[in-house]
Amino acid sequence: MPPAVLTARGPMPPDTHWLLPLSLDIDHVRKPDDINGHLTFLPERPIRARYVTLFFKANIWLMLTKIRILADGVNVAPAASIR
Q: Which pTM was predicted?
């Protein structure tokens, strides 16, 4: 079951895996409303995938600066295209 209502073309594939973040880790606080942090998503077991789609539902301003997707300890995200 998706964590939020999505608008898309057709249903999600039946083997879609939804992950929620473990917690928000604060890396740096410049001001009370200016915080750098990161989210970690960890599946219960390894998942084989050809494509990865990220959906974020933010209740505040959100800027993504770095995405890492680890496969056997190697970050495969730099080779990916972002659309």
A: 0.60
